[in-house]
Every structure is written in C-alpha cells, then in structure tokens.
C-alpha cells in the first residue's frame, strides 16, 4: 500500500455496534488503530477505499509456482484441521471459500466430497485455481458473484475478514447465500494476543515489534467482538476455538508455535481464556 500518490481514506463506524464514538489507541505506521468506546471493538480508522485495496491484492501474486509451494506447505496444517472441524457439523453439500486464494483449501474439501466453489479478488490467483486445480472460482468480490439465496451449506473465510473494509456487509451476504442453519466459519488473528505481544516486545526489543500489521489488517477481532459481530449479523450457536497456527517450515519457531497452541487449547478448555494467536468461530445461520 506504499504507493507514491496519497491514498484517500474512508471513515468507518464500528462494525459491531455502529457507534462512531472511538478513541485512538495506537498510531501505527500506516493508519491509526481505534477502540470503540461503546463495545470495545478494535479497528483501523480511517482506511483505504475498497478500490485501492482491490488493486493492492490483485498485485499480490506474481509467481504462481512459488506461491503454490508456499501455500501448500504453510497452510496444510491449518486446512486439514479446519476441514476436520467443519466435518463435525457438516460433512457434505455445497461449500464456498471466500478469498480462496490459489484454491488449496478447496482442493482438500473437494477430496472430502464437498461440491466446492471459490471467490477470489486476485485475477492471477483465481486463474490458477481454475486452470491448474480445475476449481469453480469466481474472480471478483463476494457481492459481485451474486450467488442465489440459500445456496450453500458451508461458507468459509480463512484469514479474510481482518482484511476487508466492511466486515458487516460480508457477513450479511454470507447469511443471504447460506441455507437456514448453514455453517459459517471465520478465522482471524486474535487481537488480544497481538496487542500483548506488541506491548512486551516494544518494552524489551522495539525493533522486533511487528505491531498490528495495519498494512494488511484493517479489523482487529477478539473472541468477544467476533462473536458479537456474528450474532448481530444473523448467526447463532457460535463455537469459538483456538485457531491452528500457520507453520512456515522453520523447525524451532514451528515447534514453539505448536507448544504455545497446546497451552492456548488448555487455557481455552480449562479456564475459558482466549490467548491463542488465531481464533476460529463456527456458527450457524439463524433460520
Ligand atoms: Zn462498537
């Protein structure tokens, strides 16, 4: 997003409760991070327009083979576990992956017997999923795809909702295209973990502090704000789980991540504390 020209910014209300009463809690390099004074939701405001964001993501993939290798390796652990969790609730039918990237998750879901569909804004990534993996992928935004009402049994958003300028409209559209009692799966970074890590690192080793990655992430959900948003947009009986961490093929770091994830799973099960780096919500469309 570091373009030479100034990028116009769009002012947003709180996505959870619609309030415009918010306070700046951090001045990140790219844009301010605010906390809603009514409900506590944390988000970037103002943010670039959707047009600028789409141009940014369209240029994100250039080397297909490199991205395929990287995605397959890094995401396999996440997607295998995600699919296992989905199959607890729904093991067949029409599945849509929003922001499906190269289609690696859909490939696994198709092998499990789902009828798979994808939406991807990046033209090269959508073309890869269609041409190389023979997947049914619409290139564009979810709204542009204009799927019929009550069409899907499952809709997944793997690490997508934190990137979009209007998360409410995405969830509303997912509610429209899901069958009654259909399953929505949303995976996002846990802001409580990332804020705590940033505070600790900025005190002891500021140059290693990654902040909240406001170049890519516009919305910063906690378990509380994610579930509140989903309930308000028409989803019920949500189950919140610690997300499986991304694995990047660096043995020491990956082992540390898996160990921390085990601790987070215990904290979740025994103490109802959400300290995982990533959280996943599984919720059903209200009939
Ligand atoms: Zn709010």
Short key terms for the protein model shown above:
287 residues; alpha/beta; Rossmann fold; four-stranded antiparallel β-sheet; 9 helices; binds zinc ion
Write the layout of secondary structure elements.
Blueprint: E1 9-10, E2 22-27, E3 32-36, E4 42-44, E5 47-48, H1 50-58, H2 64-89, E6 94-98, H3 104-111, E7 115-120, H4 123-131, E8 136-139, H5 142-145, E9 152-158, H6 167-177, E10 178-189, H7 191-204, E11 219-220, H8 223-232, E12 235-242, H9 251-271, E13 278-285
Parallel strand pairs: 6-7, 6-9, 7-8, 9-10
Antiparallel strand pairs: 1-5, 2-3, 3-4, 4-11, 10-13, 12-13
The structure holds zinc ion.
Zinc ion is lined by residues 14, 16-17, 19, 36, 38-39, 41.
Structure description:
By secondary structure, the chain is α/β, with parallel strands linked by helices. It has a domain at 63-186 and 242-285: 3-Layer(aba) Sandwich (Rossmann fold), CATH 3.40.50. The chain contains nine helices and 13 strands. A seven-stranded mixed beta sheet has the order 8-7-6-9-10-13-12, with helices on both faces. The protein has a four-stranded antiparallel beta sheet with strand order 2-3-4-11, with no helix packed on it. It starts with 8 loop residues before the first strand and ends with a strand. The structure holds zinc ion. Zinc ion (ZN) binds at residues 14, 16-17, 19, 36, 38-39, 41.
């Amino acid at each position: 997003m570091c373009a030479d020209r100034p990028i116009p910014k769009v002012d947003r209300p709180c996505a959870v409760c619609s309030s415009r009463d918010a306070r700046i809690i951090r001045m990140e390099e790219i844009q301010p991070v605010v906390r809603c004074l009514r409900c506590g939701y944390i988000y970037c405001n103002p943010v670039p327009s959707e047009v600028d964001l789409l141009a940014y993501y369209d240029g994100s993939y250039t080397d297909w083979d490199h991205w395929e290798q990287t995605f397959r390796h890094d995401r396999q652990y996440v997607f295998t576990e995600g699919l296992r969790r989905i199959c607890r609730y729904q093991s067949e039918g029409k599945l849509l992956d929003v922001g499906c990237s190269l289609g690696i998750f859909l490939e696994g879901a198709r092998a499990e017997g789902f009828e798979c569909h994808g939406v991807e804004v990046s033209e090269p990534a959508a073309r890869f999923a269609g041409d190389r993996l023979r997947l049914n992928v619409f290139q564009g935004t979810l709204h542009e795809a204009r799927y019929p009402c009550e069409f899907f049994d499952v809709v997944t958003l793997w690490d997508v909702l934190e990137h979009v300028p209007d998360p409410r409209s995405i969830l509303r559209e997912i509610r429209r295209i899901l069958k009654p009692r259909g399953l929505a799966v949303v995976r996002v970074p846990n802001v409580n973990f990332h804020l705590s890590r940033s505070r600790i690192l900025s005190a002891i080793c500021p140059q290693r502090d990654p902040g909240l990655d406001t170049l890519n992430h516009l919305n910063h959900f906690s378990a509380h704000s994610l579930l509140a948003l989903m309930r308000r947009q028409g989803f019920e009986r949500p189950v919140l789980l610690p997300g499986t961490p991304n694995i990047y093929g660096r043995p020491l770091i990956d082992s540390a991540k898996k160990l921390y994830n085990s601790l987070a799973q215990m904290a979740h099960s025994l103490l109802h504390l959400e300290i995982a780096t990533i959280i996943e919500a599984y919720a059903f469309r209200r009939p």
